[in-house]
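Practice problem 4.
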């Protein structure tokens, strides 16, 4: 029997979920109470200050003692030779898993033994009181993975810190409650991470503001605050600002609308709200990392003490390899009442769906709650004259090259914020007219093969889906509904920047310009003309922003591939059904404008044989093969021609995918309604079906692009699922078909295998080799070299499934074929090894290419894993992690 040491509860073992056959490969052990009670634990909880809390104090932090055990056998799981083990948390986690990874790394691998790691202490801090004064529990999710050959155990463990309170004692300076949670922090030099929270704010009778805050590393070890920039890793620079939230009521003819708007107290330069300077720091408790900052700027006499005020901070800690940031925020009412009015029309989490992370002004401003304190209606760019009010500025930035004032403006028209770091978000520039690079920006005729530099195009920010998709940014937040309920001149003219509905002159022009109802009082916007909700395509805010492909008037179009069969050298036979959203089968294909298949294989890497993919059309002038049906249950049967079937050398698993589209007239406009592509894998030689590896998570694509074909169109709204895209975008395909019909085009084709294409598209404007042009159907010219990816490209998991971007690559991944157009024929001229094609599509500078070539054998074998595989010195995960912050 194991006896727990004094002051420590017996450990709870958490398997971590997953298959019972592999769950013993790696398990977590931690002191505390397992939950859910009476079942296999999913996690461990501990009450702050209880016996399971290693610091033994009620201080707002639960210190868990954690270890990991490998190969603890169960009835369903027996030990394996574990050769890899790794642990991490989500990127926004309040804790640092470095101590956990360190103890896990102490276990020698590979091992088949039953062994446990040393213990590590993991501090889980409570979040502090919410706006209602309640301290909620804080749960941290820890993810781990162990591998034994081709077997993987992926685990998720949860550690929950449950609050307790101590009443009756005096609070910290600035506390508005009788109970304050004060961290007791473990001793030692500061380690990794940065954590800062505002614990309280007070304003004295003279209007002097004092904010009390914590400043520690991720483990709770104190850092020293500084008001100046510092390179000392034991210190961090702190800056604070303060603003009040006004509730502005506008009334006209009995119609009243209330808008919330922040106004900042600190405006050192006209039009430029900013941080306080010259204030003083004081130590509240150095051992616990608690300090105070007293503003040099006093609030003016008669300030509105009964309304919501917000203090926001920017904290920066410089380490050897990166700078860490925190943006603590605190809402309070100086007069002492509870906070009842807030402004949260979006959340940082929504921004980070694309921005990964939001990091403006040099990377230090990462919370929307901080942005809105300075980007008020007091702010304007003194050089361009453009408003810096958040709702108008962000709308204009995100509409970017679709802004009406730029699209319809003269050459040189632009939207820019000059300020501290000049940025042009949209500009009308010269472009090639005709020729091989029609529509591509140019500076002279020499840039335009077979054309002239006499056209125009608009460059800049391109929103990654339909700009009418307001919920992309306004789907979360306490007051997110305000974007529907409170139409205003400032917000609406952010996107509609050539309209002035107001009674005052704006940058768009005189009152009423381009507004059908003329100049109107702002109180009329939502009360008379533009209510929150109404009929689709009407004047309500929601109705006017209806995305046609998401209209409720559409019946829906759903495809289902029921079976597929074929053998080498023969045709493929497919059965399928098409229905509406309610499941009613289509009895005729007459209403479709397109119905086609794509067929390729084998699954080890698609496109290995010639032709690399066949794309038979089932309807229209190019239809081939035999189509019958539907039968009584709506099932059609289609048999391809031999030419569109399986090549003579085909083996293993092949894939067929389907696309379909129809044109529907809604509200006088034609809408392309498409199915979500479906695929089916089938064996051509009797072997077991082995689907192609999955690399990209479709949900990750949706975080920026939404639902493809319902607001983001690819290939005329026809293609929308990654598992379908890989059929055509395989290592043997190029843009030859589009390029060959364009006179003057560079004869060197562009590979369109998915990794090559998407890496280059998302690198876009950061590519060294410009322009990046891919020719599409009918010779369309697509310049992707101007794309501005808003996230951190080093965070591969923003798009990829976990670990699919690490080395070594799985077996069977083929090189990417290179080709040129010779006498109108596509002729192979070499290939790019698969690792290089993935990496050099982002890192396309000549030096990196030379490095890769130097480490590639004449036969194409790549030495990349020697240095860049996991556990190697320059592992992909390590190199990219240093750039993810």
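Answer key:
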């Amino acid at each position: 029997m194991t006896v727990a040491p004094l002051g420590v509860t017996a450990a709870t073992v958490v398997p971590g979920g997953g298959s019972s056959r592999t769950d013993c490969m790696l398990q977590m052990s931690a002191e505390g109470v397992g939950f859910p009670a009476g079942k296999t634990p999913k996690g461990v909880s501990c009450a702050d200050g209880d016996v399971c809390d290693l610091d033994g104090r009620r201080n707002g932090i639960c210190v868990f003692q954690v270890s990991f055990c490998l190969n603890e056998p169960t009835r369903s799981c027996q030990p394996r030779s574990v050769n890899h083990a790794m642990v991490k948390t989500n990127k926004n986690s309040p804790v640092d898993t470095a101590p956990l990874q360190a103890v896990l790394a102490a276990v020698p691998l590979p091992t088949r033994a039953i062994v446990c790691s040393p213990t590590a202490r993991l501090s889980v801090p409570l979040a502090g009181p919410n706006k209602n004064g309640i301290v909620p529990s804080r749960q941290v999710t820890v993810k781990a993975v162990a591998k034994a050959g081709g077997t993987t155990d992926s685990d998720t463990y949860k550690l929950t810190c449950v609050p307790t309170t101590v009443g009756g004692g005096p609070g910290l300076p600035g506390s508005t409650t009788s109970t304050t949670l004060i961290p007791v922090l473990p001793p030692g030099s500061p380690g990794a991470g940065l954590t800062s929270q505002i614990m309280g704010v007070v304003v004295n009778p003279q209007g002097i503001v004092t904010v009390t805050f914590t400043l520690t590393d991720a483990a709770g070890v104190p850092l020293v605050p500084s008001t100046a920039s510092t390179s000392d890793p034991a210190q961090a620079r702190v800056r604070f600002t303060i603003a009040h939230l006004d509730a502005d009521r506008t009334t006209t003819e009995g119609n009243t609308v209330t808008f919330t708007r922040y106004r900042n107290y600190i405006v050192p330069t006209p039009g430029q709200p900013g941080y306080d300077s010259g204030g003083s720091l004081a130590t509240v408790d150095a051992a616990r990392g608690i300090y105070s900052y007293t503003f040099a700027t006093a609030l003016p006499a008669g300030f509105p003490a009964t309304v919501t005020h917000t203090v926001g901070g920017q904290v920066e800690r410089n380490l050897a390899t990166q700078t860490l940031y925190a943006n603590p925020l605190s809402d309070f009412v100086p007069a002492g009442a509870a906070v009842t009015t807030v402004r949260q029309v979006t959340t940082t989490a929504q921004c980070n769906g694309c921005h990964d992370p939001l990091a403006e002004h040099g990377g230090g401003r990462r919370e929307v709650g901080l942005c809105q304190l300075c980007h008020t209606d007091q702010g304007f760019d003194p050089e361009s004259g453009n408003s810096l009010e958040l709702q108008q500025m962000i709308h204009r930035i995100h509409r970017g090259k679709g802004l009406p004032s730029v699209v319809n403006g003269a050459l040189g028209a632009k939207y820019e914020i000059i300020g501290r770091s000049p940025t042009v978000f949209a500009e009308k520039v010269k472009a090639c007219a005709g020729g091989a690079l029609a529509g591509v920006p140019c500076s002279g005729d020499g840039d335009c093969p077979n054309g002239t530099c006499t056209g125009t195009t608009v460059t800049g920010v391109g929103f990654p889906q339909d700009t009418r998709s307001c919920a992309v940014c306004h789907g979360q937040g306490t007051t997110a509904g305000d974007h529907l309920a409170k139409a205003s001149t400032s917000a609406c003219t952010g996107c509609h920047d050539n309209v002035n509905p107001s009674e005052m002159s704006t940058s768009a022009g005189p009152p009423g310009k381009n507004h059908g109802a003329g100049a109107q009082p702002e109180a009329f916007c939502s009360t008379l003309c533009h209510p929150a909700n109404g009929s689709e395509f009407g004047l309500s805010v929601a109705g006017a922003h209806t995305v046609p492909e998401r209209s409720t008037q559409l019946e829906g179009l759903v495809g289902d591939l029921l079976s597929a069969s074929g053998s080498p050298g023969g045709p493929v036979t497919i059965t399928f059904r098409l229905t509406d959203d309610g499941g009613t089968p289509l009895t005729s294909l007459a209403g479709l404008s397109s119905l086609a298949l794509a067929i390729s294989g084998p699954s080890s890497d698609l496109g290995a044989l010639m032709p690399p993919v066949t794309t038979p059309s089932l309807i229209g002038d190019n239809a081939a093969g035999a189509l019958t049906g539907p039968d009584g249950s709506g099932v059609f049967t289609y048999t391809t021609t031999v030419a569109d079937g399986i090549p003579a050398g085909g083996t293993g698993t092949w894939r067929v995918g389907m696309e379909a589209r129809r044109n529907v007239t809604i509200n006088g406009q034609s809408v392309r309604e498409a199915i979500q592509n479906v695929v089916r894998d089938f064996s051509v030689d009797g072997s077991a079906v082995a689907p192609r590896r999955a690399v990209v998570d479709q949900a990750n694509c949706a975080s920026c692009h939404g639902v493809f074909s319902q607001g983001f169109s690819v290939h005329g709204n026809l293609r929308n699922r990654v598992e379908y895209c890989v059929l055509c975008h395989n290592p043997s395909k190029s843009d030859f078909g589009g390029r060959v019909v364009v006179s003057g085009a560079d004869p060197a084709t562009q590979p369109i295998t998915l990794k090559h294409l998407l890496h280059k598209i998302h690198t876009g404007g950061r590519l060294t080799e410009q322009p990046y042009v891919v020719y599409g159907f009918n010779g369309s010219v697509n310049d992707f070299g101007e794309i501005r990816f808003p996230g951190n490209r080093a965070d591969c998991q923003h798009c990829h499934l976990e670990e699919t971007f690490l080395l070594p690559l799985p077996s069977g991944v083929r090189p990417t074929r290179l080709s040129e157009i010779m006498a109108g024929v596509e002729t192979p001229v070499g290939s790019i090894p698969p690792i290089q094609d993935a990496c050099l599509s982002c890192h396309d500078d000549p030096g990196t290419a030379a490095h890769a070539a130097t480490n590639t054998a004449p036969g194409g074998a790549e030495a990349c894993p020697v240095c860049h595989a996991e556990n190697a010195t320059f592992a992909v995960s390590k190199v990219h992690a240093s750039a993810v912050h």
